[in-house]
């Protein structure tokens, strides 16, 4: 299919400290979630409505090491990558689906280090 693209960029806060594990071959993989918020005013009631969307993120190799070492719960980050949906079966044999962002770039947008510099990892992701 020519002309298609699978790319996503989100900006949000990390929901919990990234969990890093290693594959049998020694590849680092980190899993974490990022929350994005949006708000709007309901036209019927006039009330402000806020909605939070949670995104599951997977980082590999150097990106995983960077995320687990420098980023934690509450940090404001930009995540860039592609969407990947995995199919699995629950204990009742029902098909289930989980969509994750396979990240290629993670950048801290808040300043939490002593030098006041942004942290970023743009190295190989996979």
UniProtKB/TrEMBL annotation:
TM stretches of this protein: none
UniProt keyword annotations, A-Z: DNA-binding
Family matches, as Pfam families: SSB
GO cellular component: nucleoid
Domain of life: Bacteria
PROSITE patterns for this protein: EF_HAND_1, SSB
GO biological process, one term: DNA replication
Regions of compositional bias (Basic and acidic residues) in chain numbering: 89-98
Positions of region (Disordered): 89-126
Quaternary data: Homotetramer.
NCBIfam families: ssb (TIGR00621)
Name of the protein in its database record: Single-stranded DNA-binding protein
Organism, as annotated: Desulfovibrio gilichinskyi
């Amino acid at each position: 299919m020519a002309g298609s693209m699978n790319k996503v960029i989100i900006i949000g806060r990390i929901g919990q400290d990234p969990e890093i594990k290693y594959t049998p071959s020694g590849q680092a993989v980190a899993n974490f979630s990022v929350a994005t918020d949006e708000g709007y005013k309901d036209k019927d009631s006039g009330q402000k409505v806020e909605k939070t969307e949670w995104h599951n993120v997977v980082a590999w190799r150097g990106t995983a090491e960077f995320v687990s070492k420098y980023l934690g719960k509450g940090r404001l980050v930009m995540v860039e990558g592609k969407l990947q949906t995995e199919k699995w079966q629950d204990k009742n044999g029902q098909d289930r689906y989980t969509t994750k962002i396979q990240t290629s770039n993670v950048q801290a947008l808040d300043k939490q280090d002593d030098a006041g510099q942004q942290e970023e990892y743009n190295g190989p992701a996979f």
